[in-house]
Specification:
The complex is a heterotrimer of chains A (270), B (537) and C (387).
Chain A lengths: L15 H10 L2 E10 L2 E11 L4 E5 L6 H8 L7 E6 L4 E2 L5 H7 L1 E4 L11 H8 L16 H14 L14 H15 L3 E5 L7 H16 L3 E5 L3 H7 L2 E6 L2 E6 L1 H6 L1 H8 L2
Parallel strand pairs in A: 3-8, 3-9, 6-7, 7-8
Antiparallel strand pairs in A: 1-2, 1-4, 4-5, 9-10
Helix pairs in contact in A: 4-6, 5-6, 7-8
Chain B lengths: L5 H15 L8 H9 L4 H14 L4 H9 L3 E4 L4 E5 L5 E3 L15 E2 L4 H15 L5 H14 L5 H10 L3 H17 L5 H14 L2 H8 L7 H50 L7 H22 L7 H23 L8 H23 L15 E4 L2 E4 H23 L1 H11 L1 H6 L4 H23 L11 H14 L4 H22 L1 H18 L15
Antiparallel strand pairs in B: 1-2, 1-4, 2-3, 5-6
Helix pairs in contact in B: 1-7, 2-3, 3-4, 3-5, 4-5, 5-6, 6-8, 7-8, 8-9, 9-10, 9-11, 10-11, 11-15, 11-18, 11-19, 11-20, 12-13, 12-14, 12-18, 13-18, 15-16, 15-18, 16-18, 19-20, 20-21
Chain C lengths: L13 H22 L11 H27 L6 H20 L12 H5 L15 H25 L4 H20 L11 E2 L3 E2 L2 E2 L3 H27 L1 H11 L1 H6 L4 H27 L1 E2 L6 H14 L5 H18 L7 H15 L3 H13 L21
Antiparallel strand pairs in C: 1-4, 2-3
Helix pairs in contact in C: 1-7, 2-7, 2-10, 2-11, 2-12, 3-5, 3-10, 5-10, 7-8, 7-10, 8-10, 11-12, 11-14, 12-14
The chains are: A alpha/beta (270), B mainly alpha (537), C mainly alpha (387).
Chain lengths: 270, 537, 387
């Protein structure tokens, strides 16, 4: 799943050889990405890669640039400097807008659950389902049998079947989080960006969510999870990247990262 | 020696002599002129007019006027000239005394043909060149400049020699140059010098003179004229731009006044106040009421009426603003589109209320004496009214900036805008701050109304004409940024006035609307946009 | 068990059918009562009333066009009157050309105002308007193209919310100024009027008036069915999703600007049709139709009836305009603006879902548990921010 040579890396320029390897093989490749808001550096020469099929957790204190990083990857924010490539270096994400990036196969779950509240749960999934996106064509669109099967599958995964015809706005917070993950699945992206999926969830829900994400990852989707909840990150059992002040502070397994002196200093506390 | 003919030398000499010894008893040019009228020859009549023009005799004007009206009568046999008054009585032209016992039937009116009529016009123009009033002399010089009548030249030279007021002297010199430049009799060097004199005047009229040289003018004169024309056109183009920029600044300050209150309510609070224009209108009506009261009870204070109206308008419209905020807007925070609709409703109510109280027609708001008048700056005519409004707009802007930066309430306003909950938890009464902020924005609109009452019709529809412009200014400048509003107002004002000469007033306005629409689409957050997380909320 | 609903949801719920029945009933009944009953009969509908009702129905169609974009996409256009007026001008130009030699100056080609301005020939943009099919096409094309160009710029640059409202207002204001100009060639501030006939029928005749009314009612019914179909299609679901969470829709891979643009253009065309039907029944079109105040008034019709309910928008247009006719013709005329202004405030404060929206909500609460209500839930006036 991940590179076996798991080594903690201090925030540093990757060696040239590694850069080239990543350009050719990595699913997502960020190099030297810098974003400035009115003099404030939200991202400072951020570099990291995500391989195809990998699940990655990103931790870091508030203001470390986690959300800005997602904004850059999904085309919401243009970086001032740096490269963002997708699909083994074939696609330059900085040249594309949100829609094009979504169509390429990058799905995003927001920190605050964002579902279409005045649609029913099933309509939320129908809207997200991979397929025709053209405005005029969708005036006459009818649901196909395959689409129906696919939606049933997603309902099984996200366990919201009994709520299918309720309005999404009427769901509980945790249910909305799951619905949003379900919508991501319906999009069938190569890469899922998940921003704090368990915020506000009960312990049981948190554990279920970790399981859900592992399941999604096992089905071949690459996943990047931003999360504060260390128990949840441990449950995921994946490589961890710690951000601080817009760049990578440490990278490795959770144990390696949480043993790192600087991580303890700026984030975990002693 | 610049004079072109011996005759002119003679005339000049005569004129000088005449002015030195105005009441000469022996025969002078005046008497010679009268004698020429009696010959009944058109040529002599015209020559007589020329003599009269430079005679310096105070009765010359009367004689020329009489000739123009056909009231100049001669007795060819006796060689006497009489003037018939409006009542039919006769006066001796030579002495000015009533003529008794003259047989009116034996007298003949001096006849005029076109040549004589031309000479009459020239003579009466030339005579005013010697008028004791400098303003009249200036006007006469300018008239000669316009007519470019070569026959006035001798009189002009005489006047030039005698003139002491610099402005009049220059006008005379320019007029003389305008005649000389087109006269084929004048030597080439003198004509080139005339080109230079005219180029110094440097206005549209000078341009016209240089552009209308006679076709037979020598090449050297034409060349000199061409380069002078280019020079004048450059200067005029610069002044033309300066003029438009001045008008633009004036319009910009009006826009600034109208928009600045909105920059508070919309820019700082995010409230779309469609009744903002009506706050301006209420300010203008406050001015009207204040002036009416002053007229009724203490007219001596009239010149101070605007200064008195400013605080009253501020408090009154501010109070209305607070009432609106407390009764309607506070229930709609965070719902911008509903606020827009509700405040539109309020604007209809306010308009109709004013219409019911004061009637639908325009109300007359007077201008204090210190606001009327004009001063010329170079080729610009600067009216005091416009200048004061620019000054006033800047003062209001600076005052508002100071309130926001330096006062406690300003600090609290900024705190509430940036983080309402944090401000509340620090003991700031956010409700009160909201009301005060809205009141401040409305009060500023009222002050704007005081100023706008001076340049616009005070009617219930006054506010309507400003609301769209005000919103465009605030959005164009960048929401939440007072400096943006200043720059936005001034650039829209100047752009509007620079467009007008090419497109006309209406098309210029339309073009500007289109430009702003396109601009907003290019930069939806305006000129001075805030970047970063803050705007995502 | 499958959660997917295999039965196709009905295009028109009970409410929709009731609405259609009323409109089509009016289309038959009003002309019949006008033409078939003698003038003395108690049930006779006088011709002025036919035209007045026709005017209301034009406004209803206009309100429907606003509701499509405001209620379902969250676009608050303060320039919808511009599309209405453009449709009206296209029809007005056809009607002017039909006058022929019957004008005051008797010029066979030039309308009176051009003769008055001493114009020698017809401006190029008046060509073709003597041919009805061309004029009818322009009724759709003029507003449609303006909406396409304007919307393309605006939506592509993501101008949303109040900013969009303000520039749509500036758009109609610019057109107002332009159409006031005599040398634009649209009759200046007098506009186009003194029409004689339409498609060969005398425009003043009872039969023509009744036919125009019936046509308007059918257009309203057609517009309703079209909007209803659109908002219930997958396309419409995307529109509602855009209204609720625009950013989410983008991240889901939809081209938000294309959806908005399509809805905006359809809406503009509907407004154009409403304008085209309005002009022959009212007998005049002038630049005041472009005034920003008119466009804002349309919004209040929709707000009163119920935003996002379609039928409610039409209902609101008829109710508010009936009230306007009633109050502005009597002793209360000076107070009408107080009432209209008060209506704006009252509806936003106390009835944010409008009449029909509130009714539907009440009914839904009473029969709680019914899985799919007839109409999609009314959003109230608030567009929730995307994030």
């Amino acid at each position: 799943m991940t590179d076996t040579a798991a080594f903690p890396v201090e925030a540093a320029e990757p060696p040239k050889a590694m850069t080239e390897k990543n350009l050719t093989e990595a699913l997502l490749y960020l190099d030297g990405v810098t974003v400035t808001f009115d003099g404030f550096r939200a991202l400072n020469a951020l570099s990291f890669t995500v391989d195809a099929g990998e699940m990655r957790a990103i931790i870091g204190p508030n203001g470390a640039g986690k959300t800005t990083m997602m904004d850059v990857i999904t085309g919401k924010t243009r970086p001032d400097k740096g490269d963002v490539f997708f699909n083994g270096g074939t696609t330059d994400l900085t040249k594309l807008d949100e829609t094009e990036i979504a169509t390429l196969g990058i799905g995003r779950k927001f920190q605050k659950p964002t579902v279409f509240e005045s649609h029913t749960v099933i309509d939320n999934l129908r809207l997200a389902l991979k397929g025709q996106r053209g405005a005029l064509a969708n005036i006459f669109k009818r649901e196909t049998a395959q689409e129906r099967v696919k939606i049933d599958e997603i309902f099984e995964t996200i366990r919201l079947g009994e709520h299918a015809h309720r309005l999404a706005g009427a769901l509980s917070h945790g249910q909305k989080q799951w619905l949003e993950i379900g919508m991501l699945l319906a999009q069938d992206p190569k890469l899922l960006l998940v921003d704090e999926p368990v915020a506000g969830m009960t312990d049981a829900e948190t554990a279920q969510t970790a399981e859900l994400l592992r399941e999604i990852n096992a089905n071949g989707h690459s996943v990047v999870v931003v999360e504060h909840d260390m128990t949840f990150v441990r449950d995921l059992g994946v490589r961890v990247l710690c951000l601080h002040e817009g760049s990578v502070l440490a990278e490795g397994t959770l144990d390696q990262v949480s043993a790192n002196e600087r991580v303890i200093e700026v984030y975990l506390g002693r | 020696m610049r004079l072109s003919s011996p005759l002119a030398v003679l005339l000049l000499g005569l004129a000088l002599f005449a002015t030195l010894v105005p009441r000469a008893a022996h025969a002078g040019p005046y008497e010679d002129a009268l004698a020429k009228f009696t010959t009944e020859s058109y040529a002599d009549t015209a020559a007589a007019l020329g003599l009269l023009a430079t005679s310096g005799n105070p009765r010359a004007v009367e004689v020329v006027d009489a000739l123009a009206d056909g009231r100049l009568l001669v007795d060819p046999a006796a060689g006497k000239v009489y003037i018939r008054g409006a009542d039919g009585s006769l006066a001796d032209a030579a002495s000015g005394q009533p003529a008794a016992g003259v047989d009116a039937a034996a007298l003949k009116a001096v006849r005029a043909n076109n040549r004589v009529r031309g000479a009459i016009a020239a003579a009466s123009g030339a005579l005013s060149l010697f008028n004791p009033d400098p303003a009249k002399r200036l006007a006469a010089a300018q008239a000669v400049f316009k007519s470019r009548d070569a026959t006035v030249l001798p009189a002009l030279d005489a006047a030039l020699a005698k003139e002491t007021v610099p402005a009049v002297k220059q006008a005379l010199a320019t007029a003389r140059a305008a005649i000389v430049i087109g006269s084929s009799a004048a030597p080439e060097a003198e004509r080139i010098a005339a080109v230079a004199t005219i180029a110094d005047a440097g206005d549209q009229d000078a341009l016209a003179v240089l552009q209308n040289l006679p076709p037979d003018a020598p090449a050297s004169v034409k060349t000199a004229a061409a380069s002078a024309i280019a020079g004048i056109q450059r200067t005029l183009a610069v002044w033309g731009v300066a003029q438009n920029v001045w008008y633009g600044l004036s319009l910009g300050s009006v826009l600034l006044l109208a928009a600045i209150g909105l920059a508070i309510t919309f820019g700082v609070m995010g409230v779309i106040n469609m009744a903002h224009g009506e706050m301006v209108m209420l300010g203008a009506y406050t001015t009207f009421v204040v002036q009416e009261l002053i007229r009724a009870y203490n007219p001596a204070l009239f010149d101070a009426s605007l200064l008195i109206a400013i605080p009253i308008a501020f408090l009154f419209t501010g109070l209305i603003g607070v009432i609106i905020e407390r009764t309607v807007i506070r229930f709609l925070y965070g719902r911008a589109l509903e606020t827009l609709l509700a405040t539109w409703g309020i604007s209809l109510i306010l308009q109709q209320a004013i219409r019911t109280i004061f009637g639908p027609t325009n109300r007359e708001v007077g201008a204090p004496s210190w606001m009327s008048g004009t001063v010329d700056v170079g080729h610009l005519a600067v009216t005091y009214g416009r200048a004061w409004i620019i000054v006033f707009a800047i003062l209001v802007f600076l005052a508002l900036l100071a309130v926001l930066r330096l006062t406690r309430i300003g600090l609290e306003m900024r705190a509430v805008t940036q983080n309402r909950r944090m401000a509340a938890s620090m003991g700031i009464r956010t409700n009160w701050v909201d009301a005060m902020t809205f009141g401040l924005g409305s009060g500023i609109a009222g002050i704007a109304g005081v100023a706008l009452s001076q340049i616009d019709n005070v009617s219930p529809n006054l506010g309507q004409s400003y609301i769209i412009d005000s919103f465009l200014v605030v959005v164009f400048g960048g929401v939440g940024n007072l400096w943006g509003t200043l720059v936005g107002a001034m650039s829209l004002g100047i752009a509007n006035k620079l467009l007008e000469p090419y497109a006309g007033a209406v098309l210029g306005k339309i073009a500007l609307l289109v430009i702003v629409i396109l601009f907003i689409q290019k930069r939806p957050r305006g000129l001075f946009a805030l970047k970063g997380r803050a705007i995502e909320a | 068990m499958s959660q997917t609903d295999t039965r196709k949801p009905a295009l028109l719920g009970t409410g929709g059918l009731v609405f259609l029945a009323i409109v089509i009933g009016l289309a038959v009944l009003v002309p019949a009562l006008n033409l078939l009953l003698p003038a003395g009969s108690a049930l006779h509908v006088p011709t002025y009333l036919v035209s007045l009702l026709g005017k209301y129905l034009c406004y209803a169609l206009l309100a429907l066009s606003v509701d499509l974009i405001w209620g379902y996409v969250g676009i608050l256009s303060l320039g919808q009157g511009a599309f209405f007026a453009l449709g009206g001008y296209a029809m007005g130009m056809y009607l002017m050309r039909q006058i022929g030699t019957r004008g005051v100056y008797g010029d066979p080609v030039l309308p009176d105002f051009m003769v008055f301005l001493n114009w020698k020939e017809l401006p190029w943009f008046w060509y073709g308007f003597d041919w009805f099919p061309f004029a009818a096409a322009m009724v759709l094309l003029a507003p449609g193209l303006l909406a396409l160009v304007f919307g393309w710029f605006a939506f592509r640059s993501r101008v949303t919310g109040v900013y969009l409202s303000i520039i749509t207002q500036a758009m109609t204001f610019a057109l107002l100024l332009a159409f006031f100009r005599n040398d634009m060639g649209f009759g200046g501030n007098n506009g186009l009027t003194d029409f004689k006939d339409i498609l060969g029928f005398n425009i003043q005749a009872d039969g023509t008036r009744a036919a125009l009314f019936a046509l308007t009612a059918l257009a309203l019914a057609g517009g309703y069915v079209l909007c209803r179909y659109l908002v219930r299609s997958h396309f419409g679901k995307v529109l509602i999703a855009i209204r609720d969470a625009e950013t989410r829709v983008r991240f889901t891979g939809y081209r938000v600007e294309n959806y908005k643009l399509a809805a905006f253009v359809v809406s503009a065309c509907l407004a154009g049709i409403a304008g085209a039907l309005y002009v022959p029944q009212v007998g005049i079109i002038n630049p005041s139709e472009f005034s920003p105040a008119n466009s804002i008034e349309i919004i209040v019709w929709v707000a009163v009836g119920g935003r996002g309910t379609l039928a409610g928008a039409a209902l609101g247009a008829v109710l508010v305009n009936y009230a306007k006719t009633y109050f502005t013709s009597g002793m209360l005329a000076p107070y009408w603006l107080f009432m209209l202004g008060g209506l704006f405030v009252a509806v936003t404060l106390f009835l944010p879902k409008g009449i029909l929206g509130t009714f539907l909500e009440w009914r839904a609460r009473r029969s709680a548990g019914s899985p799919e209500p007839d109409a999609p839930p009314a959003p109230g006036i608030t567009a929730k921010p995307a994030e």
